[in-house]
Please model this.
Amino acid sequence: MNVGALAAADVPDTLPGNAIRVLPGYEVDWSGAALGKPAALSMLLPDDVSALEGVFALYFGAADGTWLRLGGTVETGILATPIMRSGRYALFVDHGGPASGGTLTQVVVTPRVFSAAGSFAAEEAAISFNLGRAASVTVKIHNRAGRLMREVAAGRPMSAGANVVRWDGRDGDGRLAADGVYVVTIEALGRRETQTLALVR
Model:
């Protein structure tokens, strides 16, 4: 994957709906490969974000010159967003997307098999989903017997659009979970969606 900074003139300072650009845009490219499921793009937020009012969101620059709101989840100074295509991306602050309607959709776990100890593939799983409007989200990890292993998000407010939370393979006490298959449950906007993943050492 190649990531390169765009020129300031390539990304507007503001967008319709009063979205304000926070950082220069970036061209993200993985030529010659198509993604079968979303990749999680993470972006470090600037240090002086406290002066900005609104919701941080990643936007995608379409070929016709319009910028499409993707969304994103902010955690410990990093915004993470699932992406599916190469192109131009830029960070804006806006008012959180649509105010009403919508539901929970596009739930994907990447990768489906991971190793928290670092011996296979990734060290954590990215759990991505789309919210039709801002909502409180709960994400839980259960073992196959139905026992709660970890509550990754507990009624956490998230904005409309694409969001990502991560599971590091640890239980609620911080211990590495045992090898096996786990069930991810996401609850938001009156819906409950599940996916499975596998943890290996």
Observations:
- The chain has no helices and 18 strands.
